[in-house]
Give the backbone structure.
Amino acid sequence: MKVNGIDISTFSAKQLRYEIEHREVNSQSEWPAALETPVMEKSTKGFKTITVAIAVYGKGKEAVIRNRSNLLAIMYEELELELDGYSNHFECVLDKITVKESIKRKCHEVTLKFIGYEFGTVRSINMTGTIKSITVEGNDETPCVVEITPSVDLPSVEIDGIAYNHISGDKETITIRNLKAGKAVIINGEDCTILQEGDNKFADTDMWEFPVLKPGANTISCSSDKCTVTLKYKPRYV
């Protein structure tokens, strides 16, 4: 098991077992007494819970407590969790700690509860024409990083198929203006930035939502064939 790339064996600890729950469900549906038919609303998804039991060792009780403390000290910020025997990773925060002391006092079983989301390895897709159909892995919507590099100066470029109205779900067009040859514009759906060579490009962009891809089939289009478009995403899972 690794936390932000640090193997917990550094703290004389090892993973024992884990349990992964699906994203919690929130529903605003209701059945008012005056109606014969209920009001059914789309459910919204919340955090995923990951529970991990680990063993922390030491030459005595004090050493075990010190190792345990050093391990927990790296877990109080947002972290990336890698579990032994599980391929996907988790972006999460620590939510609860439970400690059970063994009879020999040279080992503590620590149960850690995390809340966050699950994601796979980064996928990269290149688009050189004006339209491309792709199949997005995973089973949940995922933010997308879009890099547009024009081969010539362009007054504007429109990208479709990577943004959706948050309420209606309808597709929305992203328009980028004043593109310069060879200078990439990066629209980052993960950290919500729009940059060109490190400078803020938001003033030259018309959009309501940042890029996101839906699981399964997606069709992406670009209004100019003078651009190379690169899409990067991490598959997400419910």
Remarks:
- The chain has a mean pLDDT of 95.
- The helical segments are 61-72.
